[in-house]
Amino acid sequence: MGTATDVAEAFDDFMSAFEAFREANDERLAQIETQVSADVVTEEKMNRINRAVDEQKRHLDALLLKGARPALGGGGFSGLQASEHKSGFDAYMRKGEELGLRQLEEKALSVSSDPDGGFLVPEELSTEIGKRLATVSPIRSIASIRQVSASLYKKPFASTGPATGWVGETDIRPQTAAPGLQELQFPTMELYAMPAATSTLLEDAAINLDIWIAEEVETAFAEQESAAFVNGDGVNKPTGFLAAPTVAESAWIWGNLGYVTTGVDGALAASDGADVLIDTIYALKAGYRQNASFVMNRKVQAELRKLKDADGNYLWQAPASFGQPAMLMGFPVVEAEDMPDIANDSLSIAFGDFRRGYLVVDRTGVRVLRDPYSAKPYVLFYTTRRVGGGVQDYDAIKLIKFGTA
Description:
CATH architecture of the largest domain: 2-Layer Sandwich
Order of helices and strands: HHHHEHHEEEEEHHEEHHEHEEEEHEEEE
CATH topology of the largest domain: Major capsid protein gp5 fold
């Protein structure tokens, strides 16, 4: 786990690299003003430092992630049944003894029984996995989350409101029209990981199996669901927000995400390249802007890092302190590596209030099936959870399209 000293040193290194980048970029811009183009050596120097900034930021993020991992709490159900579940689960994980867990789930009339076998993990372990995912999954960290006990979550929304108007004190009150209601559906899909352990590890009483399995599955779960929350097609996975229909912001209607174009295929405009960012920010209604974030990958962020305003100030600002996000024009930047790189007509930047715009649906419970046979001498733990997701408010997210139409 990264210590406070390690994080502080990494943050200092990152800020030093960023200052070097700013100096190199200022030199490059000065050469462009006095020459036809920047010196090749200066350009290469700036790109090299830019890559170093990315590497320092990646190292800092890794240390912050380790430091943010919560300790295994003592939450969950209290009482004898919770204690029996935990001890029964430990016996199942270490020795494959199923009797205690099977009797406990039969006694509890569990509605989460799995026809393929396996047992629910203790509630505190399920909560721990959820906390870890919220830390390492970028979209989950800014989206709205609902826990359900069924395989489908239905959410009604008002597509049209009731008719209203002003009337005088003695005027006849006309009857108002009923609001139009529609329904969004968010099915949950099975996500799995299959960590392996040796018999020696399982026999070692000093090993906390709860923490071990949470650490083993968090990266696998986070990588899979992060990709789905961005680009998922809804087939056996959540529906990503980039899979939603899109339309130019000037023609926006409900059911589509609006986009603003850069005016250049596969690039920002050569002059006033930041104008598209301003247009996108103000394409979002004021109520959504209060909690809005930019979402992009590292390569796109590296391009935006070069932009300045009319006063020569950089639009991209380094984190004010470790643990804080970078800022772009006053809004936090969330790095999602599954966002597309800049290309012709790519939707490489998203901006919006994702807590109102995107919904993650978690079915309660995580199940584990112990398999000591398929990969002897290793014991496999087939771990599953059910997750869904999709856009819930099409007015809360806007996109930037690197194209002309």
